[in-house]
Design a protein that fits this description.
Aminoglycoside 3'-phosphotransferase, Chain: A, domain 2; 18 strands; binds magnesium ion; Transcription Regulator spoIIAA; 418 residues; binds adenosine-5'-triphosphate; alpha/beta; 3 domains; six-stranded mixed sheet
Length: 418
């Protein structure tokens, strides 16, 4: 049997059949696998398998018993093989995963594409979001579980269906919302901006009130720190330490954070706002979402243009206003108004002095969003050292900016958060 040993994981490609004739030979081979003792995890890849006899099932059980400590995962099963594992109760002991359905995106209408992926309409009820650069199911599983979790907590979001494989990478099939993004609706109906901002405020307060049980969702801090871990090769230990200190300084909360809350990640259907783009959905202090809005509607608006062009890879002859509109879905002057109305609405019960203080804290974490965004970008540039070095330069720029503030003082303003 073909095997692969990577990062402590031993993968074995199972044969087409495990039947009464071949099972003894296969068992021998399985128990004598090279690297077995060093493996922390065993993966049985059933991609080619179309038959397994009861003797084969017993062999897997025997293996599990004799190698009690190693988790055994069975992947890429066909529908039929999965049914055998399920009806025989194997799915209770083993992590069994079906082979992902393959979907060819070429015939579908592209309805949106952003920094992280493309969204296609696949029929009248479903969309498919394909993530750039993601090739493994494991990376996408937390995203679909997260949407499911938000959905069962009755938060307004899409119903998640399944993870599929496409020619462009892994994707998720989600409910199609027959609606428009809030940014588009505001663009078409600017005179009702106040009403739309009120809806955004109500939704952000709902998120801040919706609590999750421990372990149900990843926390914002955990998520950001995991991403930071991937940047270890290109930032110094001191820089990583500083960013981690900033992340850790935000108090924990069990309540929901969207992670990229802004009008282009909200859709409006029959007057009701729905959350989309849930990749960063997590638990944490509402500061994360308010700071994200600051980053989008203030930070990006006032960004030094030289920094902005380099950071977002904009051609020198392009207009920043056009780029901003494409990414955020509103003009630069509109962004100012949206921010002003949202922030003053969010802290409507606070005094002017308190609001000024809170704004400083929010602005600080708005800049940290640029850092975490760039950290994400860097993780995709491992094979492009020149580009990577340039992005690292911008991370350092935002770090230098952040060091001009006294975080200790800013954090005291958290007490003013209502
Ligand atoms: N469930 C859905 N139903 C209908 N349209 C959707 C749905 N999800 C996404 N879209 C459309 O696709 C666009 C991009 O979706 P999404 O924000 O999830 O992707 P993204 O790659 O993160 O994009 P961006 O970087 O612009 O945020 C949305 O602005 C919206 O127009
Ligand atoms: Mg989006």
């Amino acid at each position: 049997m073909e095997t692969k040993f990577e990062q402590g994981r031993l993968t074995v490609i199972l044969p087409e059949e495990i039947n009464p004739k071949n099972h003894t030979a296969i068992e021998k081979e399985l128990f004598a696998l090279e690297h077995l003792d060093a493996a922390g995890e065993l993966v049985l890849d059933a991609e080619n398998m179309n038959y397994i006899s009861t003797l084969g099932l017993r062999m897997i059980l025997k293996f599990r018993k004799s190698h009690g400590g190693i988790p055994v995962n069975i992947i890429n099963t066909s529908e039929d093989i999965y049914n055998i594992f399920e009806t025989t109760g194997f799915t209770a002991f083993f992590n069994v995963k079906k082979k992902l359905r393959f979907v060819d995106t070429s015939g579908f209408e592209l309805i949106g594409s952003g920094m992280y992926g493309s969204v296609y309409r696949i029929n009248d009820e479903q969309v498919l979001k394909v993530f750039y650069g993601i090739q493994s199911e494991e990376e996408i599983e937390p995203v679909i579980n997260t949407i499911r979790c938000a959905f069962v907590h009755e938060l307004p979001t899409t119903i998640p269906f399944e993870i599929v494989r496409t020619e462009k990478g892994i994707g998720t099939v989600l409910e199609l919302l027959d609606s428009e993004t809030l940014s588009r609706v505001i663009e078409k109906d600017p005179q009702n901006l106040d009403m739309y901002i009120d809806k955004m405020l109500a939704l952000s307060k709902t998120l801040a009130r919706t609590a999750f049980k421990e372990g149900e969702l990843r926390s914002r801090k955990e998520m950001l720190k995991a991403k930071l871990g991937r940047s270890a090769p290109f930032l110094s230990a001191e820089e990583l330490g500083t960013i981690e200190t900033y992340i850790d300084a935000v108090p924990d909360r069990a309540t929901a954070v969207h992670g990229d809350f802004h009008a282009k990640n909200l859709m409006i259907s029959n007057g009701k706002l729905m959350l989309i783009d849930m990749d960063e959905f997590s638990t944490g202090h509402p500061l994360w979402d308010v700071a994200n809005l600051y980053c989008i509607y203030q930070g990006m608006v006032h960004l030094d243009k030289k920094i902005a062009y380099g950071m977002f890879d904009l051609p020198s002859n392009s207009l920043y206003d056009d780029f901003y509109f494409k990414i955020v879905g509103c003009t630069l002057p509109q962004a100012e108004v949206i921010w002003d109305k949202f922030f003053n609405g969010y802290f409507a019960d606070s005094s002017r002095e308190d609001k000024e203080k809170i704004l400083k804290l929010v602005a600080f974490y708005g800049n940290i969003k640029f850092i975490t965004f760039l950290v994400d970008v860097c993780a995709t540039l491992k094979d492009q050292p020149e580009k990577l070095a340039e992005k690292v330069k911008y991370i350092r720029y935002f770090l230098t900016e952040s060091e001009k503030e006294n975080l200790h003082v800013l954090l005291k303003y958290l007490d003013l958060w209502k």
